[in-house]
Write a structure and sequence with these properties.
Blueprint lengths: L14 H4 L8 E14 L2 E8 L2 E8 L15 E10 L7 E12 L18 H6 L1 H4 L3 H23 L3 E2 L5 E2 L11 E3 L4 E4 L4 H11 L1 E9 L12 E10 L5 H21 L1 H6 L12 E3 H12 L11 H15 L3 E5 L12 E2 L2 E5 L1 E6 L2 E8 L4 H10 L8 H8 L5 E7 H9 L20
Parallel strand pairs: 3-5, 6-10, 12-13
Antiparallel strand pairs: 1-2, 1-4, 2-3, 4-5, 7-9, 8-9, 10-11, 11-18, 13-16, 14-15, 16-17, 17-18
Helix pairs in contact: 4-6, 4-12, 8-9, 10-11
Length: 443
Amino acid sequence: MDFMTGVKKADTLELGELLDKALIGQSVKVNGAIHTIRHMGDVAFVILRKRDGLLQCVYEEGTAGFELKDLKEAAAIEAEGVLEEEERAPGGIEIRMTGVKILSQPSAPMPLAISKWKLNTSLDAKLNMRSISLRNVRERAKFKLQEGIVRGFREFLYSEGFTEIHTPKIGAKSAEGGANLFKLDYFHRPAVLQQSPQLYKQMMVGVFDRVFETAPVFRAEKHNTKRHLNEYTSLDFEMGYIDGFEDIMAMETGFLQYAMRLLGKEYAKELEILNITLPKTERIPAVRFDRAKELASEKYNRKIRNPFDLEPEEEALIGQYFKEEYGADFVFVTHYPSKKRPFYAMDDPEDPRFTLSFDLLYHGLEITTGGQRIHDYQTLVDKIAAKGMEEEGLEQYLNTFRYGMPPHGGLGIGLERLTMKLTGEDNVRETTLYPRDLSRLEP
């Protein structure tokens, strides 16, 4: 009988381990996929793709112990050889190959030139063959940075006393309602895919005080733009015992500061690959919704067409204004009109036409919506009625408030949009692993 006693120590080394100077001149084993083979006469460079980068292996005819023709691009191999220093190679090291074990061979030639520095193909081609296109080093780097954002979100909120929760994505009623709902039959009962974890995370404030979640949300919006998706990942948090919605903006600022420090330290390689300069997060300006519209209108001579909403062009101009005037990459736009906010948004007691809420714009694109919520039961019931909504399907949510809730608020951050702006892309599908939009349900 065998017993498992823990993680098995492999006899192959990873890139980080190969950087140990004590291994120079020694025989080592590595595994990986052949990213490309560069023929140089009697010598060839076999570039292996590892999970954390590229590794150069050198094949020399007559000394390698195998034939170069046995190797194919995209094959998975285990290579053995002597580790040497080589400043011109990735990471400053290379392996002079003495043997190879072929673990698997491709059955067809590569459909995309993934070994090129930049994939010179259309977005549709990249998405149609997503698992192949992401083998390109630059394409892959975007999603390593996305990992860093989520990691930063989790680490920072844990450090601030938040509890991670996991809420259902199928429900009887949505937090926001409206027509943009994916409806489905749930064992002969009507149900919807959740647009947000809003109702659940508010209820959990009464349990844990501070909660967060990273999970998919669904919007049946018939938009086919560069900024819209029908499924995206939302970074949500909700916190109780706040003094005002400014506490939510301050917490998000702290998260951004932590995340940018983390990316600069732990993801420097990906930042260099993509030639990214991290945005400034030391001081983020906050401006009222109506004032932001006026500033953009006055400076760029653009007429205000809709006093109750921000059009995409206005968001871009507001971002441009604060970049030019204050050198700011981010700007909080506060006090959105009540008619454009959900029923749970708290109205401004000084002017109930507006709410104690905000959006965060990053280079002119909304990446966050948040604010203070109504925590008084009767006020919440009155607001639902004023919005022309029914309480049916909201009974459990409302009961939570019937039995007391602290002042609280929270936000939701669009992960793919945040990654898109960080990496300088102009289409959110570039930073979505497997996009879901009006026309794409596969892969």
